[in-house]
């Protein structure tokens, strides 16, 4: 499995270079040209892959089935959206130097305090990680300390994202209400609509995905990663050998939320909008389906799941718009029934069974491997 | 013996669940390095007693002191485990998706913090200790196997091995031979006796021939309190013990 992760990370890094090159420098009439519309679309899929990978750390490895991970993604997206709004400056419809259009429209006179600092990229970048991370930390602190587990935890995470959905719909929250944040112009001084900017955003997304993949490979191979799996499989046993189960869960949940926030921040400039719909409970459930289809508890699985399901979604919603939800539902039922370990999990199991007949592994070998 | 020179000192422990007294003013003293067998009919409070000692259940009244002066009643499961009380559950409870080696490694005494675990490198001394524990419980040849693939008896031994790796001062062992073959039962008795040379062990067991094999002081529980204490032969001769337990 470790080798599979390295191959996948290398492949994603290669795609990070290849797609921009084929888009920008290969002439449009060449068969190798990547059309302009495809770059942000693929970038969006990669953001979803980061999101699925993040959920897999919490669910696949630590057993925390979060049905509210869309909330962390959306919060990261809003933090990036706020930065992009403040970059518009006087180019808005009302040409106000400080206030975004929707605030002028609502007759607001001053920028709310929580919008301060978002004109600076570094500040927004910190908030992208800090806001989802802090929310996950506080939420997890109370939930895990009170030993809320299983389906109860899933339900309150779902309630969390629903509560945020309702809150962000309100105009007086100061986040653009129903319409959300859109009409972005620049990111770090570069025109957000320019093809070169989009190519760079794609490359950055792919490189961050590859980086997260390697980081999680380290985490799950560490002793802490083994403790996470122990918590997932036998929580009270882990507690009785002296591990603070709530701390282990808090680490996995918070790191996962921070990753989801970064995915959201990369998503917003590529799709050009963030609105409260991203908090919708159904979105969070879709993330679970991507992860389950690809294979929870494997690192490459969720990435494959997110890419496969979302390409399917793009195809079906265009070709058979009414069918998509049925297909998605059927997919989830079939995966649960026939591929409970997902695509990668099932393949790995199949691979592990095959050579076992031929090679006899000496009993001491695994011990030395474990010791490395 | 008083609270000062005992390892585990329980006094007047009472636990009630909806009015039913699972433990009724239970008092028990286990000395440093002592091995004790606890017997009693179903519902006598054996498992509840272990829950109280390991912090899973909070008693309504009573005192539980570990070592010279540590009050167990203010600590949680992880704190108590770190203090040096290991517990083996009635049903074998091991980490099935980890190898036998990893099971022992996770239980190994040492820092349990999140950050330390993230950056931990297995030291040569730890590796040697894991090998030593595997040797003691007779699972050396199974080190690389997933725990899920062990037999029932091997899982019980692995769990005892995990307890040893924790380097506890007191082991609480709940029905270690339930579901074992006679052969495995005899091996387990030998194993526990070997462990008891260095550590205090409290064994809860139904199997009388196993208790006889252990040949240690026996405490009989009944309806949440101590009914009799002494050698197996002495308690077996007590009329009240015969009435509630052995006679049935």
Outline:
Chain A is an all-alpha fold and 372 residues long. Chain A has helices spanning 2-24, 38-61, 69-88, 101-105, 121-145, 150-169, 195-221, 223-233, 235-240, 245-271, 281-294, 300-319, 324-338, 342-353, 364-371, and strands at 181-182, 186-187, 190-191, 273-274.
CATH homologous superfamily heading of chain B: P-loop containing nucleotide triphosphate hydrolases
**Average pLDDT value of chain A?**
93
How many domains would you count in the coordinates of chain A?
1
Termini gap of chain B: 33 Å
Any low-confidence stretches of chain A, pLDDT <50, length ≥5? 357-372
Q: Largest sheet of chain B, order of strands side by side?
A: 6-7-8-3-9-10
**Fraction of residues in β-strands of chain B:** 25-35%
State the CATH topology of chain B. Rossmann fold
Largest sheet of chain B: 6 strands, mixed
Main features:
heterodimer; A: 372 residues; mainly alpha; ABC transporter involved in vitamin B12 uptake, BtuC; two-stranded antiparallel sheet; 15 helices; 69% helix; 2% strand; globular; B: 248 residues; alpha/beta; Rossmann fold; six-stranded mixed beta sheet; four-stranded antiparallel beta sheet; 10 helices; 10 strands; 37% helix; 25% strand
